[in-house]
Task: structure prediction
Amino acid sequence: MSRALPRTSSARFASSIAFTVLALILSVGAYVIAGFGKRGQLPATFGLYATIFAAGYVGSLLVIRRFAPSADPALFPTAGVLVGLGFAMIFRLSGGLAAEQATWIAVGLVAFAATLMIVRDHHMLDAYTYSIGLLGLILLMLPMVPGIGQTINGARLWVQIGPLGFQPAELGKILVVIFLASYLNQKRELLQVATTRIGPFRLPPVKHLAPVLFAWAGSLAILFVQKDLGASLLYFGIFVVLLWVATGRAAYLVLGLVLFAIGAWLGWVLFDHVQLRVDVWLHALDPEKVFEQGYGQLAQSQFAMATGGLVGSGLGKGSPGLIPFAATDFIFAAIGEELGLLGTTAVLLLYVVLVGKGLRIALEVRDGFGRLLAVGLATMIAIQTFVIVGGVIRVIPLTGVTLPFMSYGGSSLVSNFILLALLVRVSSGPAPARGAI
Amino acid sequence: MERQIRRLGFGLLALFLILFAQINYIQVFAADRIANDPANALRLLRAEYEVDRGSILANDAATVLASSRKSFGDLKYQRRYPLGARYAHLTGFYSFIFGRSELEQTFNDYLAGNAAELLPQTLADLVLGRDKRGATIVTSLDPELQAAAEQAAAAEEGDVAVAVVEPSTGNVLALVAEPTYDPNPLASQDPEVVRSAWDELNADPEKPLVSRASDELFPPGSTFKIITASAALENGFGPDSTWPNPRELDLPLTDATIQNFGGSHCSGGAAQITLASAFQQSCNVTFGEIGLELGAERLAEQARAYGFTAEAGEDVIPFDIPWVSGVFPDAATFEQREPAVAISAIGQQDVATNVLHMALVAASIGNGGVMMEPNLVTEVRDPTGQVVAEFGPEVFGEPLSPQNAAALTQMMVSVVDGGTGTAAQIPGVSIAGKTGTAQHGEGAPPHAWFVSFAPAGAPEVAVAVVVLDGGSLGSEATGGQVAAPIARAVIEVALGV
Result:
């Protein structure tokens, strides 16, 4: 493997260059077209934003070349296209939001590079299982701290320190995935031991079931205290998937589904806002409700996508401004209106590629921790995408999570770039020593 | 672990397949239903105004009747009607509050760029990030004639309607109706302006939104004798066939009588009168007799051949904008009402029509008995100027044999040469015409009509004019005095004499 490295590496670098240039063309192209669609001219900000994208993407390419030469060449460019399309849509919605998003893209790319530089080998992370777990937990709980926690749009997710507002959970959930990968990798033999039989399923001793129940309780706590349906579902989903992959015991999957059903039922019974979400989901287009608070946003997203039809109105030519939260939760509907089914299909395919690459990396990497880490990160992208897109297009009740890499928002974007860096790291293996290439 | 990861891959793929299925459902299969939800009206409206809507042009393909230009308001494009009220009843209006009318409505698919023929162009615009562009509509309207007709109509008092049709094609060259309106305020992007213009137009007792040339019906008076004479010719009579010539006609079953205009006695009181001289002098008594002799059935049959329907709104003559064609009731309704047959034969009582329909009638006589369908839009051009659709002449029917058409033409020429229509004479041009002075309601001044085509031998235009409520002459008005000069003015411009 190491003998073949230089050759493989340069072949990968060539594809890497090609993919990155393509991602750059698509990103800047979409932004320019949005400018023309909106005002009929080249955006005044063209010089600035094109430079950020060009410098950022080429810079990332070089950082990958230097610190992760054997990484999958399509990973970064795939995410890059999603970031670019998201940015074009945000620019089309609001020049002000675009300026902020451009800043966050720059910060995110720096975070991407920094992560690759600092985490030279993903095994480094395996050494700090509990510290990372604790840090993740602290980040998740931070919004609960009186004085700095903020409730925005009904969920207590924000931390405000001075002028700086951020959602610590966005970074926290990556740490939680690292922790779970590390923890489950260490305990998986223990968890594999099956003694108890329930019907056709064999379960480990009751005391080893504790982690599952603990995670379930944690998810419910997030749901109850922070009223964050999306995050609750996300954590529990990732945990159950990782537990199943780590142990190979389908019983965990079944147990997880049962617990999920109980949790969902509890949420329904206990919370008005959960009941409202379900009612909105079922009745978004009812004529007597379509203008009501809460129903309107889902109705607008349906209208936007249906009006967009097969090919869409063209970037800058629809009315995505009519969709509430078009730049964040509903950015997929805005894409559907202006780029049509072709656009939404392309976007979903990019996520499929990203998730598929993640699982591919998990299959190729040799160590258990790396495997579980890649599975966890890929699953996170998949579940988060499914939860928000499924919510926007009325497959499931809407829960507010961001669309990875596309939605407006600094915490989410920077965290996604860190997540991407970790996948790149696992894919590449340890960084070569200085002067190795 | 590997097996689980592979299975996980399939599981997650299955989740994404659900998403793929749903976006196809929303954006393709149920797209029309969802997009046309009334609650989505605002988005559809804004989308509509994102389109560089096509222009409506006159027959020179240069004079602009309606066009769009970029606006800096809320909506991206602004509709303009450079000639204001002149073509309002034909182009219609394009309002973001009150919708569309006339050509703006009937050719909306082309103008808005939604027609299938425009798909390649639309896709090209989409890919290039250009605004979608609509197709250009070229009409048959002759700007010079429309202006001349408008001017001639304006010179006469009261409400005047004029229709000018090309006999060989049915192309409508001009269609003028007073009162009219300016469609520009209705196309404004300021809802206040739109609403106040709309309220004002609807509150106006004169109803300027309704075209007197094609949307309303009036008794045609003696111009209907063209149809009665056609029925006589088609049923074996000739220009020289004679009828008794009393001073007045006693109507069966009643005390009522039909009298000639002003109570005069036609042909100096001769005992017999020919069809030709009764037509030339517009003798009501004779045509009452002809009506009774032919009977309701034959009259109705002839009227049907000219496109008159039994009830208003049953139009059988297709046109590019909504219109109402003439009415002649079913023969059955005349049972036990014989006097009504005689009175309808002279264009009163149960008969009603408008200048557009009468211009088509005149055109069909000039065209050797072949009636053409009226045509307003001749071609559609895509944004690059390529013709994507053409609307050629279509035959509506043959209400008259060529011989009878020639005979009737001769009778109509004699009306202008030495009958009731001498005011339409133009030196050196043979004009075929028929006057009409239609009573409508006790004490109301009559509608004055003139229906004509010229040159009689090879007509280039058929012109029908109605001056409502007598115009400047009021109750003293006749079609020959008030309407014929307007027709003459239009024919002069049309023939360039």
User: Anything to note?
Assistant: Chain B touches chain A at residues 1-6, 8-9, 12-13, 15-16, 18-20, 22-24, 26-28, 30-35, 37-40, 42-44, 46-47, 50, 70, 123, 126, 129-132 (CB under 8 Å). The mean pLDDT of chain B is 91.
